[in-house]
Design brief:
elongated; mainly alpha; 2 domains; 15 helices; Endonuclease Iii, domain 2; binds iron/sulfur cluster; disordered N terminus; 291 residues; Endonuclease III, domain 1
Amino acid sequence: MSPKAAAKPRRSRRSKKPGVTIADAIRLLTEEYGPFENEPRLDPAHELVFTILSQHTSDRNSERAFRNLMHTFGTLETVAEAEVADIEAAISGGGLARVKAPRIKDVLGRILDLNDGSLDLHFLAEMPMDEARAWLRQLPGIGPKSAGIILSFSLGMPAMAVDTHIFRVSQRLGIIGPKVNADKAHEVLEAAMPPEDVYPFHAAFITHGRQVCKAQRPRCGECVVNYGCPSRDEEAIQQAAANAAAEQPEPATHDAADADRPDGQAPGRRRRRQESPTAVPHTQVVKELQP
Ligand code: SF4
């Protein structure tokens, strides 16, 4: 056989159809990282401002900027009346303050215009979700992800919010196709699962993207859904299996609970702890704002 014929098949020949269902992925990832609790969030207008502050910056920086904004102005109504330069100074610890300050001022002003001078957005929870989403999306700088965050986390609606981790993991697992962009992914994913699965999906996929299915070097060998992933790295899986075998020479004893695991992983495998509480990083800020 020629060396060419003996070469491993190219990855591009592999089917990109998902071999793991969304329901199984949620279940396995929740077993791995969960349970996930929908923690209390900010009220919708505060959540909206926090979402703007969290764009293109770390959780820590956005929390710092938000805390200082509220410490400086006290209420969002005062922020809405403030000079852009003063808002910029208040949020300077969060990055991109020059861009975000006028955006915050604009969005608050637009809400006041559209909502009879009020920043109370709880009325959105009474609307059909598509209408509530459309209402938010007419605001400057509010795209499908920001709208999804406000509807889902602040108002408890089953809206999808697709961040970079969720998008990447969904594409790698073949749940969304390679031609689906991030905006379209919201629609595709929301339609692909029942409303009650939206939050568990969000929490499970974002955590998996942060901890294992990383952008640069996914740890496919440690991944609990690698059995059905069309993007998996076979070498990483084999290497991880070899490492595990070297560490644990004694054959493990299967019990009934492990026997039907679709991932084929060794029983007794240690469950991974969450490094951070998924997409709800600002619990402390919420507590501080509560009367
Ligand atoms: S097998 Fe690899 S690429 Fe696929 S979901 Fe798991 S970590 Fe990501």
